[in-house]
């Protein structure tokens, strides 16, 4: 099945299985630099860890594409005398999904990664009140399989914890941890590759100089931005929006797909297999209607399957650019994803392909001459 995907599945798998919690995205940065080095003109980073790969154009116009590198995880806050690790959350976890999961503690003690399990008390020894109790992240502990002395030697407060999960193909879906937001990071990398290869819209998309573009005007400078700390308040994008100061910003992130049993149709937000989601709003941003309409029209013209997204709650890097050093037109593309913020996040391969196609087409046809003022 993976051979039938219209994208580099092996890279997507590598990105989603790599580990990088907010503020500690080092392993993801290495992959981003490796993949964008040969398809852009320069790569830079800032004091927070944002990575920006820039493709220079000849227009006096700049576009920023942003997608975040971090995944939700934990930091060790305490080791008990018995050798259990207590955690502090990095990002928004639903404690209900944490029981009986495997984790990895990334240590700085020199002993390398330490495996562990998030314990779950068997129901045989629980009374009715205990079974009905709503647990918080503070109630979760990591069983290291070590005695207290060994645990204190190998694990320290401040060590990072990520979920231990492989990425798999399930039917027509890709499922695993950290599709939020590595699937969009992957889509951005794929778009940068296609622009560099002159393959923005098939074999006839290249202009005479070998660059992908519309052929109708100058090419803008494009900043491909991989941001940090999105899961703890859009912090990287907020700083980057000021530092880059683009004329247009488009962010990519996953979005809710509640097209599963237990939800009415009006609660789905998006549906898997129906195409890339063009965001209208979430709780952090209302996208520019002219940017949104251009993305919708372009999807229709190119036959790229798309759907509209109205997300009742949650925010993305888009807001970081809308509140930067001036009034910027912003747009957003989303990959519909089931089971967000769990270790079994699931996306349909056709939606991933559609996201790559629409982002590439939007960049290839952006000349800076579109009027996004309202």
Describe this protein with a few key phrases:
2 domains; 9 helices; eight-stranded mixed beta sheet; Aminopeptidase; Elongation Factor Tu (Ef-tu), domain 3; six-stranded antiparallel beta barrel; alpha+beta; 25% strand; 374 residues; 17 strands; single chain; globular
The CATH topology name of the largest domain reads Aminopeptidase
CATH class of the largest domain: Alpha Beta
Number of domains: 2
- CA radius of gyration is 21 Å
Name of the CATH superfamily of the largest domain:
Zn peptidases
Give the ordered list of helices and strands: HHEEEEEEEHEHEEEHEHEEHEHEEH
Point out poorly predicted stretches: 202-215
Helix content: 25-40%
- Strand percentage: 15-25%
Structural class: alpha+beta
Report mean pLDDT, rounded to a whole number: 90
* Separation of the first and last Cα atoms: 45 Å
Layout of secondary structure:
Blueprint: H1 9-17, H2 26-36, E1 42-45, E2 51-55, E3 62-68, E4 73-79, E5 84-90, E6 102-106, E7 114-118, H3 128-132, E8 141-143, H4 148-154, E9 160-163, E10 168-170, E11 173-176, H5 179-197, E12 221-227, H6 235-244, E13 248-256, E14 276-281, H7 289-302, E15 306-310, H8 318-322, E16 330-337, E17 345-348, H9 349-364
Parallel strand pairs: 3-12, 3-13, 13-16, 14-15
Antiparallel strand pairs: 1-2, 2-12, 4-5, 4-9, 5-8, 6-7, 6-9, 7-8, 10-11, 11-17, 14-16
Helix pairs in contact: 1-5, 5-9
